[in-house]
Each structure stands twice: as C-alpha cells, then as structure tokens.
Design goal:
Length: 305
Amino acid sequence: MFRSRVLVVAAVATTALALSACGSDSLSSGGSSSSAPAASTPAGGPDAALVAKLPEKIKSAGKIVIGTDATYQPNEYLDADGKTVIGMDVELFDAVMAKFGVKTEWVPSAFDAIILGVQSGKYDVGVSSFTVNTERMQQATMVSYFTAGTQWVTQKGNPKGIDPEDACGKTVGVQKATVQADVDLPARNKKCTDAGKPEIKALVDADQAKVTASVQSGKADAMLVDLPPAIAAVDATGGTLELLGEQYDSAPYGYVLKKEDTAFGEAIVEALKQLEADGTYKQILSKWKTEGGAITDFAVNPTVS
C-alpha cells in the first residue's frame, strides 16, 4: 500500500539508504543536510495569513531547519546520492512550508536526538514519523498529520514460528527510542515473565536498516516497526520478508515543535487543511502509497489514549 517509486536498497545495512528506520548514530554528528525550495502546491504560492504567523527566527532566515532520521523508508530516507533526504514526510512537509513561503533544510539526525534538538533550537521542527503520545507532548508541541500502527515482520513463511500473542523466548528486533522499543516490547515481555515463560530477547539498534537486516539474516526472529516501513522492507528485500498479521495500536504521527510554539502549530494545521482541501495532501500520500494513513482531523496536541 506504500511507495510508488522503486525503492533504493543498500547493499548492506550499514548505510542510511537502506530499508526503513528512525535513528542512525552515524548521522547524528554533523551529518549531511539537504536544502531545497519548498514544494509548490496547486494553490500556487504562499498564503499571506500563514506567512504572518511564522516564528521570527524562521521568517528572518527564510528557511526552516528540520531534524529527521533519514533511514525510515518510505517516510524519510536518503536518495541514491546519499545526501538528499526524500520520502512521504519530506514531500508533505515541503508542501506545508510552501504555504509559508520558506525553504526547507533537512538535517539527518539520530532519532532519539531530534526532540532534544528542537528544544535546544538546533532544529526548528522535528519531522520523523513521531508517534504522538503523552510523554512526547510533555516535552514538545505536536501537530498530527498522519496515522499508522505497529506491524510484525518475519522471514518469508515465518520459519521461526512467531506467534505475535506469544513471542516469549524469541528474539525480536526494534529500533531504539521508538514506541515499539519503549512501550510495546516491554509490555509483551512482562506478560511472558508474569506467566513464568522465557523473556523476549530484544535486539535494539539505533538504525532501523540494521534491525531489518537482522531479520533477513536470521539473527532476529522477527521485528516490530510502523506499517509503512514494514511494507517498504518487504518490497525492498525482494519478498524475503513478509508481514505477519495486521497492524495494531494505530496512532497519529506528529510534527515536533518547541513547547511554546503552539501558535505556529495552529498555523501548520491550517496549512494542512488547505492541502487537504486542494487535493495536494492525498496526492502526495498516494504517490508514496501511504494513503491508508490519511487523516482529516489535523490538530495541535491531539487527544491520544
């Protein structure tokens, strides 16, 4: 259901170009950045009312600096040149910023360093498939724009006999600092130990590409990841992997802003509404085959369970 273009597959999971993810330490110090004009929209240019609501720092610079984990294909990842950040999130946020008349500068970062980078002012915004939850909204303002759930992925044919409801004793790969690593797997593990069963062995890495490769190689019996990169991984690995069961615990993705940037967040909501109304929002999601995650209730700090 995702990705219209041919996906670029790294030869090994040591490059940021590979299959999917949220946080490569190799990208956290300096890293590359891509600066490009924000995408044009059918509306044909900036909205004066939205431009007036830009934070002064962004307005003065004429650009917005975005922290992203560029290893989470198809949402945000590096193109074949190894420098340009592309993906569904990138194209959509570029279109949002076109409404404000500013350029976008995408800076690859470790996933778990992005919120801190926004808080410190290193980044003006974090755009990296962040699931909205109460813990993150205590640290930042979040603007919902998409929704996705968690998906199990195994080798083709599920040779390790993974049962999502009873993975006790199995080795499960997850990316560091994600909902899967910090919430989902610990809860599953507690059920195992409470029942007197062996612990789930968590294989945690900062780079989702390496997590995916661990399932391919058999080092991990399965992995937990958001649905869009799960589908991308299956496709990009030539069908050596497969989805197991259905996605679950769907929740909104959110743009990450400074806690005090609620007014800017409301302006971003308005830009998203305009893109939804003129068809750009659906057009972008359809291009990346992520239209199943489309929402219409864009909001600042949405209510989540």
